[in-house]
Amino acid sequence: MTGKVTLVGAGPGDPGLLTIKGREALAQAEVVVYDALVGEQVLAMMPESAEKIDVGKRASHHTVPQEGINEILLQKALEGKNVVRLKGGDPFVFGRGGEELEKLAEHGVPFEVVPGVTSAIAAAAYAGIPVTHRDCCSSLHIITGHARAGKPLSIDFEALRRTGGTLVFLMGVTAMPMIVDGLLKAGMPPETPAAMVESGTTPRQRKCLATLGTLPEKAAEMGIHSPAIIIVGRVCALSEQFDWFDSLPLKGREIVVTRPRERAGTLCSKLRALGADVLEYPCIETVPILPCPAIDAAIGRLGDYEWLCFTSPAGVKFFHERLDALGLDARALGGVKLAVIGTGTAKELTMHGLRYDLMPQDVYDAEHLGAALAGAARSKVLIARAEVASPELTKALDGAGIAYDDVAIYRTVYASPRSDELRARLYTGGKLCVTFTSASTVRGFVSSLGEGAPMGNVTGLCIGRQSAECAESYGIKTLISQKATIDELVRLAVNKLN
Ligand code: SAH
């Protein structure tokens, strides 16, 4: 049976600007054919199982010609695949989407189109430029500034000038001086406000505000390069007043996030929402210890315990996986009280329909949990946590003479993606700002780069004293959040990195 091709606009870069329908189509894709302009984080949403075909490697000269792309789409669909053709911005705004559909239509291959947010409008908006504004203009024109090699631009500049509308040029970085020249020669005043926005809607966005007369010089000074849009019109003068994106507190600040991939979501999105350039570096991963006779036995005698204690969301998750594997559910915990180290762990409990009975008051670490539990417990405690864990918790229980079983149900493995890139940066004197949400993320980070790497170039944003002490032991400079929560860590970044 013939498959289907969905032409999806990926938006201009900010992954939040991919439409819901686009995201759903992407999640269903068996094959994704994508371009150079699709944002990195949108690409990260491609299903792991999908075949991924990059037809737009820009740096090399291996871009697949249009005819080749049309052919790939056709072939994959004829093989019965559910194909998503992912294109930067909107697929029909200078995206050659139509050409791709022609071929499919000729062969009777079904297709759908999911429009996208075009850079022509969004990059301007992120630069504080509304492409239309009541008092400034009554039309908007999107023009290609692409010039065939050695040929003059075929743009009717006089007609454009007469419209009095906002002009947005795509693919015009190289031809920009010619475009400006054309408009000036057509009689547009040199003092007309103009701007360029490079890598719009991404943390690397840069804008060049000028007038038509000064744009070539200013853009050259800043070294503005592709992809960038050129905007000409009075609306550009509103940019400073409406400049919201550049004023975000972490705009352009690079922050490395070391959490395991499945837990990084909230931290990354909170940092990104504040403008940070987040580099996801999931150097640790938690895996259940299987088989785990110790936890199975403990679950078998849950009635013996007064307390069940969790020190991380992973502990809660893997404990419930064991319960499930043993044919049990949350009801098995009916007779036991629940202690958690902090709000993240508490939240994971609520996902399993459970509330905690005890959480340390202000400081979310093993020592404070131990102290609280030592005060509350009358009889035996079951602790389900990581293989390598803080001795502070059991020390407190020992001190109070409380019996416990400390069972390792998961371990941390250190993965090291992109480590070459980061190591090279540290060795060449580059500075890195890195978040550490546990001592194990510190160990994961250090072991992924090798202990010999110049850790003095790293500033650690640490969620608590324990991660900070661990970081300091490797020579990492540290900043410590007031409380061990993601929100406080984000607040720390905002307060201390500016
Ligand atoms: N279909 C796309 C445009 C493709 S043409 C869209 O709707 O956005 C490629 C041109 O788009 C680039 O040369 C540049 O002018 C513009 N462009 C794409 N992404 C951009 C971005 N993030 N910031 C600025 N310009 C961008």
What does this protein look like?
Strands 3-2-4-1-5 form a five-stranded parallel sheet, sandwiched between helices. The chain has 18 helices and 20 strands. α6 links the parallel β6 and β7. 35% of the residues lie in helices and 21% in strands. It has four domains: 114 residues, Tetrapyrrole methylase, N-terminal domain (Cobalt-precorrin-4 Transmethylase, domain 1, 3-Layer(aba) Sandwich), CATH 3.40.1010.10; 122 residues, Tetrapyrrole methylase, C-terminal domain (Methyltransferase, Cobalt-precorrin-4 Transmethylase, Domain 2, 2-Layer Sandwich); 113 residues, Rossmann fold (3-Layer(aba) Sandwich); 126 residues, Rossmann fold, CATH 3.40.50.10090. It has 498 residues and is α/β, with parallel strands linked by helices. It is elongated. Bound molecules: S-adenosyl-L-homocysteine.
List the helices and strands and how they pair.
Blueprint: E1 4-9, H1 20-28, E2 31-34, H2 40-43, E3 51-54, H3 66-78, E4 82-87, H4 97-106, E5 111-114, H5 119-126, E6 140-144, H6 157-163, E7 166-170, H7 176-185, E8 193-198, E9 206-211, H8 215-222, E10 228-232, E11 254-257, H9 261-273, E12 277-280, E13 284-288, H10 293-300, E14 307-310, H11 313-325, E15 337-340, H12 343-351, H13 366-376, E16 381-386, H14 392-400, E17 404-414, H15 419-427, E18 432-436, H16 439-449, E19 458-462, H17 465-473, E20 477-480, H18 486-496
Parallel strand pairs: 1-4, 1-5, 2-3, 2-4, 6-7, 11-12, 11-18, 14-15, 14-16, 16-17, 18-19, 19-20
Antiparallel strand pairs: 7-10, 8-9, 8-10, 13-17
Helix pairs in contact: 3-4, 6-7, 11-12, 13-14, 16-17
This protein binds S-adenosyl-L-homocysteine.
